[in-house]
Amino acid sequence: MDLKQLRQQEIQKQKDDRREHIVSCAIDVFLSKGIAETTIADVAIASQVGVATVFRYFDTKRRLVIETAETLWTRQQEAFNQSLPIGSVEMNGLDKVMTLFGLFKKTYNKQPEIFRFLEQFDYFALQEVMDKNELTVYEQRILMLKEPFVQAVKQGISDGSIRSDVSIDEVYMTCTHMLMSLISKLVVRGSVLPSDLTVKAEVQIDLVLDMIRKYLGGK
Question: What is the rounded CA–CA span in Å between residue 62 and residue 128?
Answer without folding.
Answer: 8
